[in-house]
Design goal:
heterodimer, A: Cell Cycle, Spindle Assembly Checkpoint Protein, Chain A, 4 helices, 8 strands, globular, B: alpha+beta, 13 helices, HORMA_dom (chain A), cell cycle (chain A), nucleus (chain A)
């Protein structure tokens, strides 16, 4: 991923460093959401497998949709998400898989977003300039001593392995499903027209499984999948 | 529950009271702006409330109606139902409210109303006596029903309701109070109502007022029949305070909202069976995706000079025999190039006053027919390098020919097509009349049952071999001359035809029904078409402006590849007997060989064996050219 902004230098004041760090971390998170969304759509058979292509990411072959409509749809969501993320307005992202036939919510992937407080960031200012060759977002340089990008990528990789592996215990879907994306946002968030209030779309009679978490220097993501228990 | 109390204020707001409290001069019917902001979550586990007031209210009303309003804490606050007025039987009231509201046309749902009323009854009963005075005021406001229109439109439900109730008790009061008074009283009532839920800061008077208004509502319930109910039904949007109290009551944070991305996700192209997904072979087998498209060699296998090739779209000067020999007409000569040996010799040279207009191998690869500019057709034995016979009949150049066993069809500039039986002296056995301009495309179907011809009159004619007096179908879709004609090797009634520079289309025909089944806009003059025998593909050669070869999948009509083949327009093409190699001759005077349909190891031909050339092709070993 291209790093759009220059790594903060050690001379920068704390507040600025923090901003940059948060932005970079948000980018990492949104990118993670993007891949997670694609992976779930692929793994859970929401779209046919031939609509997906493989790209290398997090040291894994990741499936991403190559269907123009789906791509555009996800892109729109992620665009808004990154805006919210940079303002730390989001506390959860949820992908709900719904049966087209019954309209029931059959599976719910919830990613809890925890934003770390400023205190943890104070150290960041003292960090040296980032390794420019590194592909990581700018935040990484400032906070290298806390958590290197490699470590973050490894954690994400482990999580994706788990998501992929979850098909072994998740119930079979009938292949005729659609999906929705929900976010839990602060009440004072700016809400574009395309987003509207919704209920939580919980799965009824659900079993929940907590998956791995990962964290950047600014965010921690906890993942929970809930699914319908077989009758 | 705070709910009941909350609801009441809504109604009061209608009266215009709210204006004092909330929004000043705001019209009562408009939803308050604040409401959408706050959200409360309902205690029920599966559902959360979004900020819409309606949801909240409906929820509460539901729960309230089920549970019975009594439970709400406010009722306690309100004090006990000991009241002077006989009318209020609380049970009865609640029932009434439910039934009564429904019929009303008013906008608000009945559910909303019910809780408020019931609550009102409770509260009202306690405070009753003191309120009376104030209640009068309310009535006046309520007058809207009757004479008093001067009250703002806001008058609506609560006020009206109150009034009615009062009317029953004391009709005389109305006149006294002014509308404004009533609204004030109501407002106070509303405020008090809010406060009920929480610790109260309101003064006793306000409480009293609230109770009054509530009472009024109550009364209304009793008098269901009255018009009052309509106004009640409108529930006004909640205030922030209200929502907060609700949220608190439910123990939910109102700082958060759940947002959904509303546009529907794109439809999946088909239902997916994940089982097949999990069990798929490691190597994708037959792949539909573009990444698995077959590779086509884009470099020519061999390039030969073709000096003196006449640059004339209407001629047909190149053919490849089943015996793996290539014949090409260059000005006045026909050359035969053996693909096996790479040797070339001149087969014939025509008189200097004319030129070669077409060449065609017989199906067995033993003879070459050559059409001349004079209209003469010569048949040559290639092995012996001798002319077997000359056939006359056309008086214009013979620009296209086609063999069907011993039958040779010739198309001439005049637009006439003759069938010659080459075995007999009176060779002309049929005259096919349909074209009015030069015939430049002619192709027999492999089984000899149908013949397709294309001409400079933009006409495609499809003939039944048994009925040659008139074409079976005449197709006028092309907008330019049709030189490129090709019969599909795996579907015998499928014909592809390609038009000239003003047309640029390839049309596909069902020659049984005559229907056009598909079309491609190639973007350039189509000079020839060849179907693959091994793939469900066909190759087209292009003239201006592309000068390229394009390979199309059929029936998807996807262009697999476009090979920039020549520097000027590709005039002719011919397939090798094994179907792998394509020879192209272009106006740049070169002859190029392309391995466009290279066979994969182990894959067979789509066509097991037809008649004529393809049958023999099946037998020949892979074509080699040297």
């Amino acid at each position: 991923m291209p790093s759009a902004m220059p790594p903060p230098s050690s001379r920068e004041d704390k507040s600025k460093t923090h901003k940059l760090a948060l932005k970079g971390s948000s980018k990492t998170i949104v990118e993670f959401f993007d891949f997670a969304c694609n992976t779930i759509l692929f793994q859970r058979g929401v779209y046919p497998p031939e609509d997906f292509t493989t790209v290398k990411k997090y040291g894994l072959p990741m499936m991403t949709s190559c269907d123009d409509q789906v791509k555009a749809y996800i892109k729109k969501i992620m665009h808004q998400l990154s805006r919210w993320m940079q303002k730390s307005k989001i506390s959860k992202l949820v992908i709900v898989i719904t049966s087209k036939e019954t309209g029931e919510h059959v599976e719910r992937w919830q990613f809890d977003v925890n934003v770390f407080s400023d205190a943890s960031k104070s150290k960041a200012a003292s960090a040296g300039p980032a390794d420019k060759e590194n592909s990581a977002p700018a935040e990484e340089g400032a906070t290298a001593e806390q958590k290197t990008d490699d470590v973050v990528q490894k954690e994400i990789q482990a999580l994706f392995r788990q998501i992929t592996g979850s098909v072994t215990f998740l119930p079979m879907l009938d292949g005729n499903c659609t999906f929705n994306v929900l976010v839990y946002a602060d009440a004072d968030s700016e809400v574009p027209l395309e987003w509207g209030d919704s209920d939580a779309k919980e799965v009824k009679n659900a079993e929940k499984v907590m998956l791995r978490s990962f964290s950047t220097n600014n965010h921690r993501i906890d993942t929970v999948v809930s699914y319908r228990l077989a009758e | 529950m705070a709910t009941t109390s909350v609801l009441t204020p809504l109604k009061t707001r209608r009266d215009g009271i709210f204006s004092t409290r909330l929004a000043g001069g705001r019209a009562p019917m408009t939803p308050s702006p604040k409401t959408p902001r706050t959200q409360a979550v309902v205690p029920e586990p599966s559902e959360s409330i979004h900020h819409g007031n309606a949801n909240l209210i409906s929820r509460f009303s539901r729960s309230v109606s089920k549970t019975n309003v009594r439970d709400s804490p406010k009722s306690n606050i309100a004090t006990r139902p000991s009241r002077g007025s006989p009318r209020r039987v609380e049970q009865a009231l609640s029932d009434y409210t439910l039934t009564g509201t429904a019929p009303r046309p008013s906008t608000a749902s009945s559910a909303k109303n019910t809780p408020s009323r019931s609550r009102g009854s409770r509260a009202g009963s306690a405070h009753r006596t003191p309120k009376r005075t104030q209640s009068k005021v309310n009535y006046t406001a309520a007058d809207r029903f009757i004479p008093n229109r001067n009250a703002s439109e806001a008058i609506t439900s609560t006020g009206a309701a109150v009034k009615l109730g009062e009317n029953d008790h004391t009709p005389g009061r109305r006149p006294k109070s002014s509308a404004s008074d009533g609204s004030a009283a109501l407002a106070a009532g509303a405020a008090s109502a809010f406060d009920f839920g929480r610790p109260q800061h309101t003064s006793s008077t306000s409480d009293a007022a609230a109770s009054l208004s509530l009472e009024g509502l109550r009364l209304n319930d009793n008098n269901e029949d009255d018009e009052d109910e309509a106004p009640r039904s409108k529930a006004s949007p909640n205030t922030v305070a209200y929502q907060q109290s609700v949220a608190e009551a439910c123990g939910v944070s109102i700082k958060q909202r759940i947002l959904a991305f509303k546009p529907a996700p794109p439809e999946s192209s088909r239902p997916i069976d994940l089982r097949s997904q999990y069990n798929r072979p490691l190597k994708p087998a037959a792949a539909s995706a573009s990444q698995f498209r077959r590779r086509v060699l884009t470099a020519p296998e061999r390039v030969l000079d073709a000096p003196g090739l006449v640059d004339d779209y209407y001629l047909n000067l190149l053919d490849w025999s089943s015996g793996n020999q290539v014949a090409i007409g260059l000005e006045r000569n026909v050359y035969v190039w053996s693909a096996e040996s790479g040797s070339v010799h001149s087969l014939l040279e025509c008189p200097s006053d004319t030129y070669i207009a077409s060449v065609k191998w017989s199906g067995d690869g033993a003879y070459v027919a050559a059409g001349l500019g004079t209209g003469e057709v010569q048949i040559w034995d290639v092995e012996e390098q001798t002319k077997l016979r000359s056939m006359h009949g056309h008086d214009t150049r013979v620009s296209v020919m086609g063999w069907n066993k011993h039958l040779l069809s010739t198309g001439a500039r005049s637009g006439l097509v003759f069938n010659h039986d080459v075995r007999i002296a009176q060779h002309k056995v049929a005259e096919l009349v349909s074209h009015t301009s030069e015939v430049c495309g002619l192709e027999w179907r492999a089984d000899g049952a149908q013949l397709a011809t294309g001409g400079n009159d933009n006409l495609v004619s499809i003939w039944d071999a048994r009925q040659l007096t008139a074409p079976k179908f005449q197709k006028t879709n092309h907008k330019a001359a049709i030189k490129a004609l090709a019969w599909c090797p795996w579907q015998s009634n499928l014909l592809a035809t390609g038009g000239g520079s003003h047309d640029r289309h390839i049309h596909f025909w069902n020659t049984t029904s005559g229907a056009r089944v598909n079309s491609i806009d190639t973007g350039s003059q189509v000079t020839s078409l060849r179907w693959s025998m091994g793939y469900k593909e066909l190759v087209s050669s292009s003239g201006f402006p592309d000068n390229s070869l394009s390979i199309w999948s059929y029936p998807t009509l996807v262009k697999n590849i476009e090979i920039p083949a020549h520097e000027s327009r590709v005039l002719h093409s011919a397939l090798s007997p094994d179907g792998q190699m394509l020879a192209t001759a272009a106006a740049d005077e070169s002859l190029k060989f392309w391995k466009v349909f290279e066979k994969k190891a182990g894959s067979g031909n789509l066509v097991g064996g037809g008649s004529g050339a393809s049958a023999k092709a099946g037998l020949t070993k892979a074509t080699t050219i040297r």
